[in-house]
Amino acid sequence: MRKSTLLAGACALGIAIAAPAAAWRIVFDPTNYSQNLLSAARALEQINNQITSLQNEAAMLQNMAKQLQRLDFSSLGQITGSLQRIDGLMGQAEGISFDMNEMDAAWKEQFPEGYEAATTITDMVGESQKRWQSAMQAFRQTMRVQSQVVENVQADRGLLADLVTQSQGAVGALQAQQAANQLLALSTKQQLQIQDMMAAQYRAEALEQARDAQSEEAARESITRFLGSGKAYTPR
C-alpha cells in the first residue's frame, strides 16, 4: 500500500514538472508572418510615395519661385535719359521752332506771301539776313542732334551687351520677359531718336528750300522796282 502511494505521487510530480515546459512552447505561424510582412511592406511603400510627393511639390514650388523672380537690372533710367537729351536739343530749335504756334508766327514774318509797297530794299535785305540765320541755326541744330544720337548709340552698345547677358542668364520666365521688354524698349528708343534726327534734318532742308524760293521772290520784286513801269525813259 505504501509503495503504491509513493508511485502515484511520483507520477503526479512528473506531470506537474512537465506541464510548465509545454505551456511556454513558442508556435511559429508562417501564414500570419507573411501577412504581417506584406502589411509592413505596403505601409513602407505608402510612406515612400508620400515622401516622393512632398519632394515633387517642393521642387514645383521652387520652380514657381524662380519663374516669378524679378530681374535685378533696369535700363529704364539710361534709356529715358538719352531720350530726354534728344528732346532737350529739339526744344532748342531757334528761328523756326517745332512748336506749331511759334512756327506759324515766325514763318509769316520771315516768308511773307508778298511785299507791300512800303517795304524798302533795306527791309528786304534785313529779312533775307534773318532767313539766312534761321537756315544756319537749323543746320547747326541738326548737327547737334546727330552728334547726340551718335553718342547715344555708342552708349547703347554697352547697354545692349548687358541686356543680352541678363536675358541669357535669366532663371525664370519673368526675368526673361523683363529682359526682353528692356531690349524692346532700347530698340524703340533708337527708332525714336532716329525720327527726331530725321525731323531736324528735314526742317533744315525745308528752311533752305524756302529761303531759296523767298530769295527768288525778293530778287524779282527788287528788279521790278528797279525797272519800274518801263516808261521812266522815253527816247526822243
Structure explained in plain terms:
There is one protein chain. It is rod-shaped and about 150 Å long. The protein has a domain at 76-101 and 121-225. The chain has 6 helices and no strands. The longest helix has 55 residues, at 173-227. It is an all-alpha fold and 236 residues long. The termini are far apart. Helix content is 81%, strand content 0%.
Number of strands: 0
What is the CA-based Rg, rounded?
51 Å
Describe the main β-sheet briefly.
none
Number of helices: 6
Beta-sheet strand percentage? under 5%
Q: What overall form do the CA principal axes indicate?
A: rod-shaped
Q: Helical percent range?
A: over 70%
Question: What is the terminal separation in angstroms?
Answer: 207 Å
Q: Please state the structural category.
A: mainly alpha
Mean pLDDT across the residues is 78
Index terms:
mainly alpha; P-type conjugative transfer protein TrbJ; T4SS_TrbJ; 236 residues; signal; coiled coil
Write the layout of secondary structure elements.
Blueprint: H1 2-23, H2 30-67, H3 76-91, H4 100-110, H5 121-168, H6 173-227
Signal peptide: 1-21
Coiled coil: 37-71
Protein name: P-type conjugative transfer protein TrbJ
Short note summarizing the structure:
The protein has 236 residues and is mainly α. The protein has helices at residues 2-23, 30-67, 76-91, 100-110, 121-168, 173-227.
